[in-house]
Amino acid sequence: MTQAALRLSALAEKKEKGSQTYGSWQDIYREKWTWDRVVKGTCNRADCIAACSLDLFVKDGIVWREEQNAIFEQTNETVPDFNPRGCQKGIIYSDLMYDASRIKYPLRRVGERGSGKWERISWDDALTEIADKVLDVCKEDGPESVIYDFGTTNIDFGPGTPAEQHLIRLIGTTSLDEWAGVGDLPMGAIQTWGLFTADGTSDDWFNAETIIVWLGNPVYTRVPDVHFMFEARYNGARVVTIAPDYNATVVHSDLWLNPRVGTDAALALAMCNVIVEEGLQKKRYVQEQTDLPFLLREDTGRFLRQSDLAKDGKDDIFYIWDLATKTLQEAPGTNGQPEASIDLGDLDPAMEGEYEIELLDGRNVTVRPAFMALKKRLDEYTPERAAEITGVGAGMIRRLARQVAESPATMIFCSWGSCKHYHMDLVQRSIILLLALTGNTGKRGAGMRIGAWWNMSLSYDKAGVGALAAAGGDAERPKVRDVENIMKTLMKANSTISPTMPFLYKHDKGYAKLVNTPGYHDPDLKRPISEYMQEAFDKDWMPVYPRDGKTPRVFLYTGMNPLRRWPAPDVIRENLWANFELIVTWEFRMSSSAMYSDIILPAAGWHEKSGIKFCQSYVPYICVGEQAVEPLYESKNEFDIMANLAETLERRAKEREEAPYKDAFGNEHDPREIFRLWSFDGEFGEGDAEKALSVQFELSDPVGDATWEEAAQKGAVPVKSTGGYGPITAITNDFKEGETLYPFAWFVEGKESWPTLTGRQQFYIDHPWFLEAGEELPTHKEPPPAGGDYPLRMTGGHTRWSIHSIWRSNRTLLRLQRGGPVMYISTQDAKERGLKDHDEARVRNDVGEFKVRVKLAPSVQPGQVVMYHAWEPYQFEQWSSQQAVNPSPLNPLHLVGDYVQLQYRFALAQPSNISRAMTVELTKVT
Amino acid sequence: MRVGRVDAKDEELLSPDSKAWQEAPVNEVVLSPAPLEMQPTEYIRVARNGRPYGVLSSMKVSALHNGDSVFFHLIWQDGSEDGPIKDINQFADAAAVMFPMVEDAPLIGMGIKGKPVNVWLWRADWERPKNVAAEGMGTTVRRDDPALSSAARHANGQWDLIVARSLNGKRAPQGTVALAPGTVTKIAFAVWQGSEQERAGLKAFSPDWQELELDA
Amino acid sequence: MSERQLAFVFDLNKCLGCQTCTISCKTLWTDQPGMEYMWWNIVNTMPGRGTPRDRDEMGGGFDAEGRARAGVLPSAKDFGEAWDFNYEEVFYEGKGQSAYLHPRNPSADGKDEAPEWGPNWDEDQGAGEYPNSYYFYLPTICMHCTEPACLAACPRTAISKREEDGIVLIDEDRCDGYRFCMEACPYKRIYFNPDRFISQKCVMCFARLEEGVAPACVRQCPGRVRHFGYLDDEENDVFKLVKTWKVAIPLHPEFGTEPNVYYVPPLAPPRFDENGEIDEENPRIPMEYLRSLFGPAVDQALATLKLEMEKTRQGGKSELMDILIAYKWQNMFIPFVEDPGELSRPAPKS
Fold it and tell me: Which of B41, B46, B88 to mutate to test binding with chain C, by most C CBs within 10 Å of its CB?
C-alpha cells in the first residue's frame, strides 16, 4: 500500500468511528493547535555550529511556537537524510523572546556600572550620546581608540553583521578578533595544515568505519547532526569516545578510553608508536602528504634548505632523498616553489637513512628524514609508557591503534574542545599525525573534523565584491596557499583587527600581571612570559591596536558577553573595563556585560528580523529566517541600528563642523560623509535589511541562482558550491550534488600544496621557539598548574543547554536543570571533602573564587571537576563566576608570527583563551 | 429530623454562634465509612484496603428554616483544616447533604438510573457549595447554584458548617429537591477528611436515610 | 483493548537526552496556567530517580494476577515545581551584585526557598563506580496502555481508550480531579492541573493525527529516536521492531498494563578491568538492572541487536539496522507524514 493510501484508510476509519464522539474538551486541543500563518525562521543570530530551519507558527501577532521545517533532501540513497534539524533551544526561542530578560527600551546607566540602576531614554538621545563620544575620540586619538567587538556569541551571516562591519570600517575603529578569545582556535591544526577549520557535510560522518570522538561531546554540542554517528554505528562503524569522564557521547560508544585530564597527546603518540612499530603506516600517503621525508640537519635540528646549499637560495625550498635516483631532490610544492603541487611524480623519498651533504660554506652536515626524528620521539611513547601517563591500558591503546590503521575510514571528531587547553596544539598535532600515518586525512568519511563554513558573501557591496568577482571571471580557482598569502599581506597592510588575548595583555595591566605569574606556564620555557610577549609586539607578530601611547576609550560590542567570557573578569572589570569612557552594547537579552554597560540598545529578536544563519557546512543548505513579527517594544534590527548610528554620526559631525581624521594607517575618514558612504549613496537606509539580503544572495556562490525571496519562502536553499576558499572557509573540496562532502580533497586527491611552509601536513616545526621548547615534533606535556598548587583540575565543555550564554537564563530550560550553575564532581572527591549532592562549595585557587552547587557523579574522573559553559556571572553569588579562577595561561609559541602558516590574520595563529584544566580546590560552604 | 421554623434573618442563620442555633435542637447523626466493597473501582478498593477512611463516627446536625431558606448546621471533629490545596496530592475537606428525588431512591450508590438523588456539596476550597445531581456512582453532574450558600469555620479541631438553600417548593429547578414549609422527605449526610486523601466514595456517611420534616 | 493501536518505539541507542521532545510538547500543550510544572514528555537519566522522583517505587498498575496495585499520589515537589526566578530584582532594582538570579519554589509564597528537586535533577549523574560508571537516557510519555490502570481506577469513567487507535484520553469535562488515575498509573505520567482541578496527560497529539501529522515529540526529535505507527501494520517500522525483530520491548512489563511505548534497550561500551583493559566478562550496565526495567525480554533484544550490528560490521546488510538507521526520516512515522507547516489552520472565529 502506498503511504497516501495507508493514511487515507487511517483517516477514513477515524472519521467513521471517532468524530461523532468528540466532545467539547477535545475542541480545546484542536483550537490550541491553530495559527494565523507560518513563517520560515531560524536562530538567525546565534553562534551555534548548526543551521536549522524552523516553521514559526504565528498567532494573534505573536510567535506561538517553533517546529523544525524538515525540508532537507537526502544526499543520496546510501546515507540518512538531515531531518529534522533543530534542538530544544531553537524551538523555545519564542519563550526567550518574550521572557523577562528581554531588553525593551534604550537604557542609560544612572548608578555605578553594574548597579542595575537604569533610565529609559529615547533612541535619539542614545545615538546622539554615542555619536558625540565616538567623534570626540576619533578627533582626539583617532578611531583606533574606539573598540568594536562583534562576538562570536551573537552574529549572523547577514544583514546585521555585514552592516556593522561596514560602518566600523568607515569609522576606522579597532576590531577584536574573538575567535581565539572564545578559545575556538585549533593552533595544532594551524601549525600542521595552515588551516583552522576542517569539515564537510555531517552526512559524510555516516561513511566513517571508525569514529573517534576526542575532546568533544557532540551529543551535547551537535544535537541536529550527531545522529549520523549513531546511524553509522548501526551501519557497521565503531564509535570510540576518548574523554576523562563518562560523558553523554560515551553513552552511545562501542569503546571508551578515559585518559587523565590533559594527557591526550601521549595517548595519540602511543597509537602512532604502535602503527610505526608494526609497520602499519600508509607509506605513499606519508611520503607525499607530509613533511616527514624532508631532510633535517643534524647540527641545527632544522630542515635542510636551498639557502643552505646555494647562494641566493630560498628559505622555503626543502629536500628529500630520492631512493629511485639516489640523489638529493627538491621537494615539490613547498612555499618557495613556484608551482603549488606536491605531486611526487617518480620521486621515491627516503623515510629513513643518513646522508652527508656539503653546505654552501663547504662544511659537511649529516641529514636524515624527519621521519627518523619522529620515530625517535615516538620511542618515548610506548603503549606501556603511555599507560603510565594516561591511565589507559596498554592493551586498549594497541587495540585502538590497530583499529585505526586497519579501518577503511577513520574520522576523528575533535571539534573545539581541545582548543581550550594550554597544550592543545600538541594534542591536535598528535591526532593529525595519527590520521596522516594511516592516510585518513582528505578522504570520504575520514579525517579530523572541526567544522567549516560555506563561503557566503559577508558583504552587500555590489560595487566592491561584485566587481571583484566579475574581474575574477571564470579563471582557474586560485590556490589556497596563494589566497592565504594575499590575505595575510592585506591584513597587515590595512586592518586594525586585533587578536583578543594580546589586546587584553597590552591594554589591561591587571590581566597582564596575572598572565605573567610565574608557574602558570610550560616549565620548559627559557624566559619569562613578558619577554616572549614583548618580542612578539616588537616584531609585529601580534598587531594590537590602539598602538603604543593610545588607549582604548570607547567599547562598542554586540550581542556578546565579554565579562562572562574573558578570563578573570573581576580583574578586567577593574582595569580595561573601568578605563573605557563609554561602553555600549546592542543586544536582545540582558547579559552580565550589558549590566556593566553605559548604554544598552534593544536589538530585535531573531524572529523579528530577517537574516541568514551561520552557514556552517554540516548541512548543504543555506538556512535563513524571515521576519515573522514586528520588533518587540522599541527594539530594532542591527541593520537599522547601524543605519541610525551612521545617520546620527553624520548629522552630529556636520553640526559640530568636524574635519576628517586619520586612522592607524594614515587613511582619512570624513565623519560628515559617513552615512552617505554607509548607505552607498543613499541606496540603503533604515528598513532596507531585506534589500541588503537580496544583494548578498546575488553575490554569493553557494546559493547558485537562488534569490533571497526564494530562500525566505522555503526557509533554506540547497548549496550549489562551497563558494571557494575564504577567510573562514576551509572545506577545500568541490561540492558535488548527490555526494557527501569531506574536507581537503584539493590537497590529497588534487595534490595541491597545503598552505604551510613545507606545502604539506607539517609535523616538524623548525621555528627556533619550537625547537627551544622541545615542540618541534608533537610531544606530550602536562598542563601547567595554572591557578596554583591545587589538587583538582577544572575542565568544562559546551553544554546542551545553551549557545554561549544565550538560553542560560531562560526559565523554562532552567527548570529542566537545577535552576542555576552546578559543578560536576566525582563521588570520591566529593566524599573526601564532605560534600553531598547539591551542597554549596567554594571553588578557589590563587586567581579567585566562586561559589557553586555540586552535582555528584560517578561519571566524573577523580581529580577532575566539570563546569559546563557559559553561566551568566549574575547567576552566581556576588556575580563571581567560573571564570574567576581562570588566569588563561599564555602559551608563547602561539605568538609566533614569522613562519608561513604561523602569521597572524583574522582567526589565525594567535594565543587563545585557555579555560580548561585550571587547578582548583573545593571546600564545603557551611 | 425536624427543621424548626424561626423568625430570623438569613445572616443570623448563616452565623454558627447565633442565638437561633444555640436554641436549636441538636441531632446526633451516626456515620460510618462508605463500604469498601461499594467503592466503584477495583483500584480504590485495593488502595484503601487496610488504609482506613471515613473513620468519623458521628456528627451533630441542627436544621432551621425561616420561611425563605433552609439551613443545615453540621458540626464534626476534624483535627486538620484542609482548605484550598497547596499541593497536588492534597484534598480539601468536604461535606454533603443528600436528598432523594423520588421516594425510593437508594442512598447507597447515590441513587440509581431513573431514581436520582440531589446533593448539596460543600468543599473547603470552594466559595460556595455546588448542586449535584446523581443517578448512581460515577454519574454525578455538578453545577453552580446561586440559591445555595454556606458559612464554614474551622476552630479547635472542629468544623462548623452551615449549608443553606432557598426554599422553592414546586419551583425547584430540574434535579434539585423541592423543599417548602411542611415538606416531609429524607436526608443523608457525608463528610470527607482531606488530610486522609478522602474524595469521591472515600467518605464517612450516614448509612440510612433520616426522615426530614420542615415545620409549616 | 482497542481495535487498532498506535504505538511508539523509542530507540535508546540514539537518544541524546536533549529534551527537544520535552520542549516540543511543552510549547504545544502545557504552556497554560496550572500546567507550568507539567512535562507530559520527559527524558530521564537512568539509573536515576525518574520523574516524579522514585516513580518506580510508587506502585500502581496490576500484579501478576491482574489485580490492581495501590499507588502513591506524587506531590508537586516530587514532579519538580516550576521555579520562579528573580529577574526584575537582578536586572532593574539597583541591587548590583548583592542580588543574583536564582530559582525559588513557587509554593514557598515568595520566601527564598531553594529547590531541592526538579524533573531532570539527576541529569547525567548515573551509577556505578568510576571508571565503570554508566547511564543512559530514558524518555517517557503516557504509554497509552492496552490495559490502562488509570482508566480502570477512575470512579468517574472519565478516561477512555479509543477503539480506532487505542489512544487513552481523559475527558476533561467529566474529570472531577479525584486523581485516582495518578495513583494507579505505574509510569506516573499523569499530572494534576490545580487551576482547572483536572488530571491531564499526553493526548498523543490527537489533533495532529487527525490531520495526518505525527505527534510533536516524534516529528521534532533531532536524534531520530521515535518510530510511530499502527502496531498491526506489518509494513510499519513499529510492527517490525516490536513483532518481527522483538528488539523493542516495553518498560516495566510487570506493571501489567501492556504499555504501547516500546524501547530498543541501551548498549554501552565495555567495562574496564582493574588494569584498565577491557573486561569481556561483564557488561557495563548490569543485566540485572536492565531486567529490572525491561523484564527478561531484554536479554534477547540485546542479543539480536548485537548480532545484527555484527553483520553490518562485517560488511553485510541487515534489515533491522536499516530500520534503526532510518535513511528516510519520514518513514519513521508512516502514515502520519503530513507537514504541519503546509497546513492552514486558522483559529475558529468565536
Answer: B88
Task: Determine the structural domain holding residue C108 and report its residue range.
Answer: 81-116
Which among A618, A614, A612, A613 is positioned nearest to A451, based on CA atoms?
A618
Whichever domain contains C167, its CATH number is 3.30.70.20
Instruction: Indicate if C91 and C194 belong to the same structural domain.
Output: no
From chain B, pick out residues whose CB is under 8 angstroms from the CB of C157.
138
- Asked if C130's CB is within 8 angstroms of A862's CB, the reply is yes
pLDDT score of A472? 61
| Chain C residues within an 8 Å CB radius of A242 | none
Are C257 and C317 in a shared domain?
yes
Same domain as C196, residue C100: no
Total of domains in chain C: 2
Q: Decide if C339 is inside a domain.
A: no
A900 has a pLDDT exceeding 90: yes
Q: HSE, CB side, 13 Å, CA atoms: give it for residue A664.
A: 26
**Angle ∠(B138,B144,B149) on CA atoms, nearest 5:** 115
Domain positions in chain A are 3-96, 792-924
Instruction: Give the domain B2-214 fold.
Output: Immunoglobulin-like (2.60.40)
A224 interfaces chain C, CB cutoff of 8 Å: yes
| CB nearest C67 (choices: B46, B51, B142) | B46
Q: Which pLDDT tens digit goes with each residue over A67-79?
A: 999 999 999 999 9
Neighbours of chain B (3+ CB pairs under 8 A): C
Indicate contact of B with A: 3+ CB pairs under 8 A.
no
In angstroms, the Cα distances linking A429 to A303, A370, A392, A763, B128 are 18, 15, 20, 7, 77
- Contact B50/C at CB under 8 A: no
Please provide the CATH number assigned to the domain covering A792-924. 2.40.40.20
CA distance A88 to C24: 8
C neighbour chains, 3+ CB pairs within 8 Å: A, B
Q: Tell me, yes or no, whether C258 and C232 share the same domain.
A: yes
pLDDT, mean over chain C: 97
Least confident of A337-341, C98-102, C106-110: C106-110
Phi-psi region of A814 (alpha: psi -120 to 50; beta: other; left: phi over 0): alpha
In this structure, the answer to whether residues C109 and C236 fall within a common structural domain is no
> What is the rounded CA–CA span in Å between residue A85 and residue A619?
9
Q: Other C-beta atoms within 10 Å of C67: how many?
A: 12
Residue C338 lies in a domain: no
Rounded-to-integer distance, Cα C55 and Cα C63, Å: 17
Say if residue A8's pLDDT is above 60.
Answer: no
Domain-embedded: residue C62: yes
Alpha-carbon span A289 to A292, nearest angstrom: 9
C11 in any annotated domain: yes
Q: What is the pLDDT of residue A1?
A: 37
- Segment A488-506 mean pLDDT: 93
Give residue limits of the domains in chain B.
2-214
pLDDT tier at C255, thresholds 50, 70, 90 = very high
Where is A700: in which H helix or E strand?
A: none
Distance, in angstroms, between C66 CA and closest chain A CA? 29
Is the pLDDT at A608 greater than 90? The verdict is yes
Q: What does the pLDDT read at residue A129?
A: 98
C190 and C110 share a domain?
no
Confidence label for A418 from pLDDT (cuts 50, 70 and 90): confident
